[in-house]
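## tool: complex_structure
## caller: assistant
## args:
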Amino acid sequence: MSKQMTGAKMVVQALKDQGVEVVFGYPGGAVLPIYDELFLQNDIRHILVRHEQGAVHMAEGYARSTGKPGVALVTSGPGATNAVTGLTDALMDSIPIVVLTGQVPTFMIGTDGFQEADTVGITRPCTKMNWLVKDTAKLSDTIHQAFHVATHGRPGPVLIDIPKDVQFATADYVPADKAKVSHYQPRTEGDPDQIARLVEMMEQAERPIFYTGGGVINSGPRASALLRELVAETNFPITSTLMGLGSYPASGKNWVGMLGMHGLYEANLAMHGCDLMINIGARFDDRITGRIKDFSPKSKKAHIDIDPSSINKVIRVDVPIVGDVTKVLEEVLRQWRARGSKTDQRGLSQWWKQIDEWRSVKCLSYKNSTTTIKPQYALERLEALTKGMDRYITTEVGQHQMWAAQFLGFEDPNRWMTSGGLGTMGYGLPASIGVQIAHPEALVINVAGEASWLMNMQEMGTAMQFRAPVKQFILNNERLGMVRQWQELLHGERYSSSWSESLPDFVKLAEAFGCKGIKCDDPKDLDDAIMEMIRYDGPVIFDCLVEKHENCFPMIPSGKPHNEMLLGDADTQGVIGAKGAVLV
Amino acid sequence: MSALNIKKGSTSHSAYDLRSALSEVEESHTLAVIVENEPGVLARVIGLFSGRGYNIDSLTVAEVDHTGHRSRITIVTRGTPAVIDQIEAQLKRMVPVHEVQDLTAEGPSVQRELALVKVKGHGDHRIEALRLAEIFRANVVDSTLESFVFEMTGTPEKIDAFADLMRPLGLVEIARTGVAGLKRGV
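## result:
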């Protein structure tokens, strides 16, 4: 029958039963009993971080690269509040993570005790669900429920707040298969009638496009495989959001590149001009749609999403399909094949001709230099020199992130970890460690900007301690590049606080952490320097000094439609400057 | 290098789209939300409304199934049809929410509110207050020589009408429960 144990032991037992192998965490007064139990066992590995925000981003990196939930363990009060950014990040990007927080003992709750914070109150809006467990008898059941909620339906972060007396008290352990999870069973099968409508539209479409997002990746590798079948058999073009990169291979012949604010010209114009848009697991984010009124005005739209609240939230669609991408795509393929796998060949070939014309604009071209490293060039070389390797990429947030999305090619899902919805500077370094812990033999590179990277650089200590040979590829322009770009284009070139002064010497910083530092500022030396980084057996901080004033193009300014893209600096010149008008 | 062509008053120099929502007609809807009665559920539901900028005109909540630990939250909210749909979808996806009914959209319903209305007065005003109370089927639940407390149930409109009539007769204070509602029929 059921076994009696302390709450602290229950936590460890429940994690083991859920298949958890790694916990990212930081101890403190209110979680000491749990740390005691971790000390007494060898099944679960604990990665000691340097800041709780790092723990949550590591759990996210672990989750995004494995498809399994990531786990973080932090103490009460400041431990919990430091986890808030990571929780919000995971909520926005639908990443399954389970965060355990310590809490002051139940009899002290509400007395403003030492390191007390209203953790469930603070984290309620940034979790899919959270619980304060006041009774040890309910603890193991709640942990199992938490894993169920985090990984079912639209994935997301959950949090369990555990007072210290609950960790010490004893009760019966409820095994995973006895836990009460039946009340949360989101629908996964799409409505066959709606799918039939979509299939009919696919047969008749002259200018169709697949617009895919992170939902394809969250649905699991089978969803990507089905998507590839569907694209190959229909010969429809496919674009993806930042979050969905890798679900269809960048080398695939129907790939038209990422869409959105810094997406490719051909992808955005295809979205604008299509007559059938098939949204698979994306959410019509404002970085994607631009001006809503002018978003793809002539198309019929279908939307496949596991979250009913995503449908019709921003864009009204004609065919809503609530369900899991894998199951819906299976049914789409089944129905479409059963009806003879028909498409409008003539229309499609015209459409591809149009897309090829847009492609010929070569929107990613940039002016290279023989004396300065252009950030785009640095990424082109990184791509060329690491292609075909067992490679995972994380990023920070800003220009470098967009260039990485544009210039690196992703052939498989779960290989690209980036903070999309929340845009969290400081995400990439800890995320890269989380990825490396999950894939010890792989090449894990964090493409960073120097400003973002500094936000969580303390985690290099974690990388060193746990021998995570993460490569920090910092495109150092000594500027907050994206902020600077917006100020240049939209705020009259008033560069208010957007340069990085008093930067550390990154090579010496690397040495201080005990890892390798590489500095490169000459395009001629770049290949050798990148190879040196790849070959080094350990963490590397690569200080790549790049052009300081490069702007990221193409760009759709906020509030503009897809067909008003800016392709380069030339497009932005002299538009109102001649009149000396002051920007509003 | 210069700036983009941005018209005065435009909001497109923001990182966000600041345009106002499409101007459609706002409707009032009464939603019944059946939730697991556990700590924090009401805060989660209310947080959804404040966090996403929806209105709450009235809200009532009580446990309705003591053995099954189910509470019923009745919310009166306002918004365009698209917003109402979105509110419903957002509520439905919350983990502790079992069921959401739009009492306004899903056919006829009964909606009632209870109010306690304190009126102070002498002479003719006092008599007139009593007469009107009778017409509105309000009961006197407390009485002194110079005041009454009336208890009445009805639609929010009926209570508004009664309160308006009592105002010149010496309305002192009013307490309202907010709307509770059920679908008509089975």
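## assistant note: The first strand of chain B starts at residue 27 and ends at 36. The mean pLDDT of chain B is 89. Handing back to user.
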